[in-house]
Write the structure tokens for this entry.
Amino acid sequence: MKHIQGTFATDKHGWAELLPEGKAAPSLTGNHRVPWVVVGAGVTGLGCARELARIHPDQEIILLEARLIGQGATGRSSGFAMDSSRFGGRFEPSEADTYRRVNRINQAGLTLLRTQITDHAIDCQWHENGFLHGAADQSAMKERDDYLNYLEFLEIAHTPLDQHEMSAHLGTSHYNLGIHVHAGALVQPAALVRGLASTLPSNVTLYEQSPVLNIDHGAPLTLSLPGGEVRTDKLILATNYEVTKLGFLHRYLTGVTLSGSFTRPLTDDEFASLGNLQQWGVLSLHNAGATVRLTSDRRICLRNTGEYHGGDLLSEKTLARRQSLHRAAFLQRFPQLAHIPFEYAWSGVEGKTRNNTNYFGKQREAVYFAGGYNGSGISRGTAFGTAIAGYASGVQSSLIEDCLASAPGVWTPPRPFLDVGAFLSVKIQFLGVGKDR
């Protein structure tokens, strides 16, 4: 029997707080026997459960979520559903096949989400006009040529932008240059997962606030929870970096804690001081630079901190301190909006691997896992979740083949060396970020 380590903490500092209060699914109670259990109800778990229901329409699937829907990593992301990934550093034509494979996975996930959102009329502020990549400092500007080479070599639709064009789009002269990558979608991430969860097929039963406490790896597998027990033939873990709490991939996945803030909604006059786009998302060309969004409800969201915090959310006291960094970055970009207060702050954790790979496949008999997205989880996680359902069911597809081709993860040392190494790695990543913070 595996005793689960760690907790599944949450707080009221995320995108879910911008939504009307939802009705939670019940917590699991009693004893259950089902063919399939999926643990984790972010986009990976939701995509997995939906696909299992399609493949096995006459079988019951239980989907377990330790928190409330929207309070996990997906619902705390910045809401970028990527069509093509940006691979930092020098562009290497010899790696083009790897770039294409990863982008096929992204594109598959984006297509799946688009279809599900359309078919079920999910209101999640879906806006499909790609993203802007901006640079304000020399170190970020040096990344532009490599990124352009990558986009041109792979024939990814894009438009280079100078400072005037960036300013016209955003209403800030902060960025010296940029690139508009045409494909990709912005989304309210907590609204997305709520919508996906509320439209699951009838043979999927969702239980919220139902953390797994123990796993007995017999046949069948037995999962113990605070209110009951589930026995299952096959278990699929869709918990990203928290898979380590469930006893798998120790020292291969770590969590990096990010934080950001939201303004209140802008008035008509305040909104008019911005550029010519109704909503937008900016990713820094520096790999540790700020992520900035103008949402469809006219809030500006800015995320510019990342730190190793043991895979935990920030405390309210620490988050309040980080807001001074959010505020400074906001004022640099939008001095005309200096009077606008922040209304919320948030923190969230992304799963990182040392070599920026993903995990996909069987972990042990009857146990499967998909995760480790390195900050690109909305579209890729959807694709991985869909593919792992097929793989565990014995289905073959080109998407499964692409997911299986992910390079193996690199081992990381045990604690306390892990803590020191991860802390220094994140610190190094943020070196030279300068005006792009």
User: Anything to note?
Assistant: Residues 261 and 345 are 4 Å apart (CA to CA).
